Structure formats: C-alpha cells, structure tokens
Amino acid sequence: MTRELRVERDALKQAGGGFEDGARDLREAQSRLDAALQAEGKCWGADATGQAFEKDYLQNAQDVLKLLITVSDNVEKMKDGVARMAGTFGDAEDATGGGNRGRRGR
Fold first, then answer.
1. Are 41 and 54 in contact (CB under 8 A)?
2. What is the DSSP string of 71-106?
3. What is the pLDDT of residue 15?
4. Which of the two ends of the chain, N or C, has the fewest CB atoms closer than 10 A to its terminal CB?
5. How far apart are CA 65 and CA 35, in angstroms?
6. Under DSSP, is residue 31 helix (H, G, I), strand (E, B) or coil?
7. Distance (Å, whole) CA 87 – CA 105
8. What distance lies between CA 84 and its chain's CA centroid?
C-alpha cells in the first residue's frame, strides 16, 4: 500500500498570508498596550509599596512590549517559510513524477 502526500502549492502559499495578518494584529496589540501603559503613567504612588511595585513592574512591562515585537517579527517570517515549503513540496513532487501539474503554482 502506497501512502501519498500532495500539497496544493498555491493554496499553501495563500494560507501563509495568515501569518502576515497575525503579525500585524500582534503589532497593533503591542501598540495599544504601550499606549494604555503610557496613559496610566506612574499610578502606583511614591510610597514604599509603590516604589517596590515600580522596581519589578517597569522592567517587566518593557520586556513584554519588546517581546511582542519580536514575536510579531518571527510570525511574519513564517509566511516566507510556508512559501518556501510549498515550493519544496512542489519541486519534490515534480522531480518524482508524482504530480501532473508540472511547475504550475510556483
């Protein structure tokens, strides 16, 4: 019994566009979060409790904002990876005579 894997190149490439959309959504969320945090300012006060809170909070907040940018950049790169994967599957199919589509959809 032969098992076969087929990939619709064009559909896979098109689906990869979802990563671009996801990256854009992450950037927008990061921007809204940053704006909201900036608008709040230092609302925790200057007493000992407020200073203790600020000590941990500010760095963590900045780290999260930076991480969201990094994640969105990496998610966007996935689109290119999916396009390359579609091409690689298609090339393999063409090379083995497994497809009747020729080099269409590259």
1. no
2. HHHHHHHHHHHHHHHHHHHHHHHHHTT--SSTTTT-
3. 87
4. N
5. 11
6. helix
7. 8
8. 16
Look at residue 69 and give its three-state secondary structure: helix
Q: Do residues 71 and 4 lie in contact, with contact meaning Cβ atoms separated by under 8 Å?
A: no
Query: What CA–CA distances, in Å, run from 59 to 43, 48, 96, 97, 99?
Result: 16, 18, 54, 56, 54
**Chain segment 26-41, per-residue pLDDT in tens:** 999 999 999 999 999 8
Contact status, residue 33 vs residue 68, Cβ threshold 8 Å: yes
- Sequence-distant (≥ 6) Cβ neighbours of residue 16 within 8 angstroms: 78, 79, 80, 81, 82, 83, 86
- Which parts of the chain have pLDDT scores under 70? 1, 98-106
Q: Which residue has the tokens 């098109």?
A: 14
User: Distance between CA 71 and CA 2 in Å, rounded?
Assistant: 40
State pTM to two decimals.
0.70
